[in-house]
Design brief:
mainly alpha, two-stranded antiparallel ribbon, 10 helices, 53% helix, protein kinase regulator activity, Casein_kinase_II_reg-sub, Casein_kin_II_reg-sub_N, Casein kinase II subunit beta
Amino acid sequence: MDDFASDTDSDYTSYWRDWFISSRGNEYFCEIDEDYLTDRFNLTGLNTEVQYYQYALDLVTDVFDMEVDDDMREQIEKSARHLYGLVHARYVVTTRGLAKMMEKYKQGVFGKCPRVICESQHLLPMGQHDVANMSNVKLYCAKCEDIYNPKSSRHNTIDGAYFGSSFHNILFQVYPTLMPPKTQRRYEPRIYGFRVHASAALMRWQEERREAMKDRLRQRGIETGFEDEDEVEEEVESEEEEGEEAEDGIDDMFEGQMPAAAHVQ
């Protein structure tokens, strides 16, 4: 029995990172290269933020071989997870880290935007703060530029500092082709086809401000990214105007015939 326990312990410590990445709830994390973990420069300052730092580092790098009791083991394990998360925030903004996270993003590992108009746009994990224990991880949609809570409670307990507040922006800077096209489409509250007054007034104000901003950008020769949608909207508006003119023509025709009909009666 003792031999079995020691073998299990040995396997566990030998493949700690594999175990961590494959554990349920850790799907957002990518595997950090061993070379990165063993470079002391990459770990600068973390010894003051992690309890049992050296033991935790030995466990993460698969060189931990001390015999400790269960309570101490649990504390070291907790510190190892925290250390891995802090190093992870630094690793994901490196070339290798961005490439790994980009693959996860393309596969939709982080989920899809719950906003209907975003049409299932893939999300990216992000933190609102770079300091640990400030807020949990959020999911960023590059299409509507908003953030959401993870659906799973397992993911909702991950510290946002393990991804940082800059990672998602750096990813799109390095891989600009992954940036989805922006959209002007918004949901319009209506009652029997008519806009709700308060919402309509707010939307008119927002549209005026947006048009003014786009005019300023055009004057400076900066592409807004909305040119195609502007053309579509102009076509729709012209079709609506033509339809209204046709209706007016039909009404005028009937109005001209009304007196004759009345005379016949």
